[in-house]
């Protein structure tokens, strides 16, 4: 889509034509077919024509200055109408890629327009019409005076606007040049924003994957913790029971040993009593 620029028509000021050819009517009225006077008339015409062209040049400079100055803002506003926002900090990479495509298309069209304007701007004198001075303007016009002019008639209508068209094209090329500069800067900014958006999206994907993994592993971790706690409780109960059984067995062994010691003591005591009784009986028999 082409970028629409503001109207560049030069409004009539103070004349209906950028070059007031009517003011040179004396070329026709004062003809006398005398070579010297004709030359003086011709020189007068060229002097007045150069002054008139400089008036047009000054006016066009004033008219186009706001357009050249405001070309950047106009370009950004036009891009906004085409859907390219100024702030792309929250735009996705796909959206920014679309914005870049729009800007690239606008750049192609602006460069084509600039090439056309440059050709038209060279039509007057074969050089940069913006840099012409009064003498060069005069020389360029003299070279365009048709040799078959009759009676030094008015400036041909086909030649009246050629300077204006070339100069307007040159000024418009400055407007388009500023537009291209703004588009190139916007293109560079969008390329930077595209890289930043890609980084944001990668980080977002990583965060999303991390969140999904957390959501998936959280129940499993809870189940694992519960199972580990159950096993710990089971092992604790088993250890407690084992210790109690071991203590009971030790107690039974100690009781059995104690009973065995008591029985041995009883047997020893009984045996000692019998020995003493036998000794007493032998003593009595003697």
Automatic annotation (TrEMBL):
Record's protein name: Uncharacterized protein
Taxonomic source organism: Pseudomonas xantholysinigenes
